[in-house]
């Protein structure tokens, strides 16, 4: 495994990408989507946003509710099968093709900015 992308100016990254901690308050199956995703509602403290997130291999909807996640909140809205996905819940591939969501190591206030 190597690092593929060239270095960037850290101040530009932190100015352009807004990542925040949110708590999943609702998760439900999304059979209308072409990919296997859930419809999530994520509480960021002062705002609640929805996301279509591919966490279906490792998580049941009821297991996601109450978990904090790291999400990109300033990518705009993407329409997926009539559902407005308003943030990108981040995750990593576990090496077997399943997605593992990223979360803080301990609880922090919802809406906390990543820096």
From TrEMBL:
A GO molecular-function annotation: tRNA binding
Transmembrane segments: none
Keywords: RNA-binding, tRNA-binding
Annotated ranges, domain TRNA-binding: 13-115
Record's keyword annotation contains RNA-binding: yes
Identification of the protein by name: tRNA-binding protein
Source taxonomy: Archaea, Methanobacteriati, Methanobacteriota, Stenosarchaea group, Halobacteria
